[in-house]
Amino acid sequence: MSNEHSMWQIVGLSQVATTVVTSSSGLQNTDNVQTEPVTLPLTSWKSSFTSFNMVSGSCACRYIRYTTTIPPDTLVSCHCVECRKQSGAPYQAWISFPADDITWTVQPTEWRSSDTATRSFCPRCGSTMTIYLDKDVSRTGVAVGTLDDDGKTGVPRPAAHIFLKEKASWFELPDDGAKRFQGWDE
């Protein structure tokens, strides 16, 4: 396993999402006429932010809140043991923001979770908040479940599933079109 790349870099999306999403079935218009399959750049979701002001989120008890003025750009689902144990789910979905663009009402409590990452959580309710990867300190991975669901966050589709070699054996991963890696980039 190579630790030379962050989870954002391995999917080729260190700054802006560029993955192509293709609909193989095409679309039906209002006259029920089948059209050709559609290929859209994943970045097209950003065009819906004509009146975008900020993304916000919080922990479960709302003691910790955050905002960022930049729309999220990359969603990565991590299946490593640490992410599964922290989330209590088959994987942890992380969304990437520039680290210096997040404003916190209260700083989350940080702890060193491995030799490659530092995580944070709310000291009151225990909600997982962030992950900071040593290899890419310019980015912050925010737990997707902490985003306020106001319909304006523009969460992109998953770009990649990583650490599938540690995936829970009982979990069947559906084909969502995302890249798949056994580790960081293999």
What does this molecule look like?
The chain has helices spanning 7-10, 81-87, and strands spanning 20-23, 38-41, 55-58, 65-68, 75-78, 92-98, 102-104, 109-112, 117-121, 128-133, 139-143, 158-162, 179-180. 6% of the residues lie in helices and 31% in strands. The radius of gyration is 17 Å and the shape is globular. It has 186 residues and is mainly beta. 31% of the residues are buried. Strands 8-9-10-11-6-5-12-13 form an eight-stranded mixed beta sheet. A three-stranded antiparallel beta sheet has the order 3-4-7, with no helix packed on it. The protein has a two-stranded antiparallel ribbon with strand order 1-2. It has two domains: 18-47, no CATH class; 49-180, glutathione-dependent formaldehyde- activating enzyme (gfa). The termini are close together. The model is unreliable at 1-5 and 10-52 (pLDDT under 50). The chain contains two helices and 13 strands; from the N terminus they run αβββββαββββββββ. Keywords: Lyase, Metal-binding, Zinc. It comes from Penicillium cinerascens. Belongs to the Gfa family. Residues 55-172 form the CENP-V/GFA domain. One of its GO terms (molecular function) is metal ion binding.
